[in-house]
Amino acid sequence: MKNVIISVFIALSIGSSLYASAKGGCELAQVGAVEVGWIGYKTNEKIGVGGTFESVAYTPIVKSGENFRSILVGSTVVIDTSSVNSKDKGRDEKLAKFFFGMMSSKDINAKIVDIKADEKVKDAPRTGVVSVEIEMNGIKKTVPMKYSFSNDVFEAKGTIDILDFSASKALSSINEACFDLHKGKTWSEVGISFKTKIEAVLCNVAPLK
Fold first, then answer.
1. What is the pTM of this model?
2. Can you give the chain as a three-state secondary structure string?
3. What's the pLDDT tens digit per position in 175-189?
């Protein structure tokens, strides 16, 4: 009788292991840095001029987790605006001095506060909305950004209005400094974006044989 009980116990244990291996599971891990981008607009034709920031200090809430929410919500970033890079040295110097230099702080702080996924569509990138709290010029605003995830790249894009951050002084300053180039028109609307690499590991574990 004792041998029968032991045999049953071993069988159940093996069956449980096989089920766990067949079921598998995924863990998402953030890999590498976070790239922060922007695009401003000039002239009445609303010509776009874009760039990035070279100095971005990103602090993830955790290094890995089971879904986007667990690894992104609560993560923070500090952007040094003096590192603005539009691939034009003269333009960058003007932006640093006459725009960001007119703010109460040279840093922009941001924190991911929420994320909501759209219904998944077969064979299409995963999409949704990530909410980011942005602090600039001493003002905090929560901005919705549409995200997509495909080929291990998580990318989000949104729009802010500089005037929502009490930055009319900075807007007037850069418009005056670039009056001829902007033909007297610098838009308060600015496109913002960020992207990072997220890899899925421990996925599709094959059942034991």
1. 0.83
2. CHHHHHHHHHHHHHHHHHHHHHHCCCEEEEEEEEEEEEEEEECCCCEEEEEEECCEEEECCCCEECCHHHHHCCCEEEEEHHHEECCCHHHHHHHHHHHHHHCCCCEEEEEEEEEEECCCCCCCCEEEEEEEEEEECCEEEEEEEEEEEECCEEEEEEEEEHHHHCCHHHHHHHHHHCCCCCCCCECCEEEEEEEEEEEEECCCCCCCC
3. 999 999 999 999 999
